[in-house]
Amino acid sequence: MKNQRLNTRKKRGTKIWITLAVLFTILIGASLGALSAYNWSVDKAIQGLFYSSSNEPDKAAEEPADENNPANEPDDGNAEEEPPAENPPEPSDDELKEETPPVKEEEPLTPETVKEPTYVQGVLIANKEYPLPDDFAPGEDEEAKAAYMEMEKAAALEGFELVAFSTYRSYEYQDELYHRYVDEHGQEEADRFSAQPGYSEHQTGLGFDIGEVGQEAQWADDSFKDTEAAKWLADNAHHFGFILRYPPGKEDITGYQYESWHFRYLGEDLAVKVHNSGLTLEEYLNM
Ligand SMILES: [Zn+2]
After folding, report:
1. Which residues contact 148 (CB under 8 A, 6 or more apart)?
2. How far is CA 161 from CA 102, 207, 232, in A?
3. Distance from residue 261's CA to the centre of ligand 1 (Å)
4. Which sequence spans correspond to the domains of the chain?
5. For each successive 10 residues of the chain (287 residues), what is the average pLDDT?
6. How far apart are the CA of 115 and the centre of ligand 1, in A?
7. What's the fold here for domain 118-284?
8. What pLDDT shows up at residue 156?
9. What backbone torsions phi and psi does residue 234 show, to the nearest 5 degrees?
10. Cα–ligand 1 centroid distance for 31 (angstroms)
């Protein structure tokens, strides 16, 4: 009988242990299940286990909705897809490009606003883009005058009696001249053959209008181009440091129609280079 009791106790003890083991297993299983159901978020799993729908129905309903509601997916996606969201550097590049131009387009220079005459590669420039200061008054250039006298002598040997009928012109004189031309021809026409004050190469003291003595009708006139004197000048002036400044067909570059009588002193070296290049001064200087 004692043995039977002992056996019974042992059986009871074993039952208790088995029961405890089963309960423990169920508990662990439930925990793992809950964790996996809540994406291994311990906080959520605990919430799910202890605050079931009965306690906080709203919250319980919300949580799953957060994960399943497609409307919310973009939010999750956003966090991971930030690179695409950062793609807009392209627009910002454009913005940068747009910011560069705003550097104010400079107002065109005028004889009143320009402080110094413009030199390009050491060459004094006066054209429709680069005017001279209205108080720039160097007078006739002595070196240019001397070179012209040499040319005049050389021309005389060929039978041409040259005259420089207009060289240095002051701002004030050009102002007077230009407005006389405007009165006679209208501004549009005058602008094609006469510089506005401050824009004339004659104000540099380096521009020489050349014709023949006694042929006043051809001075500063298109008819001069057909004379032997004009042809000689076109072929030889560069040897004396002068270039034909406004050649035919280059009005869009120089700003002036063909002037067979207007020569610009550059010095012999540069004049020969420009002449041989076949380019206008603006083109030669890459202006
Ligand atoms: Zn001229």
Report:
1. 164, 167, 208, 240, 242, 265
2. 56, 19, 12
3. 7
4. 2-98, 118-284
5. 50 56 48 45 42 43 44 45 49 50 70 95 96 97 98 98 98 96 95 93 98 97 98 98 98 96 98 98 97
6. 24
7. Muramoyl-pentapeptide Carboxypeptidase; domain 2 (3.30.1380)
8. 98
9. -60, -30
10. 103
pLDDT value, residue 44:
44
Q: Which residue type, as a one-letter code, is found at position 64? A: P
Cα–Cα distance between 93 and 172 in angstroms, integer?
A: 51
Q: How far apart are CA 128 and CA 133, in angstroms?
A: 13
CA–CA distance, 268 with 153 (Å, rounded to integer): 16
* Tally of residues, the chain: 287
User: Ligand 1 centre and the CA of 9: distance in Å?
Assistant: 135
CA of residue 194 to ligand 1 center, whole Å = 8
Tokens of 48: 């799910």
Q: Say if CB 229 and CB 195 are below 8 A apart.
A: no
What is the CA(166)–ligand 1 centre distance, in A? 7
Residue type, 102: P
pLDDT of residue 107: 81
Interstrand relation of 242-244 and 118-120 (parallel, antiparallel or unpaired): unpaired
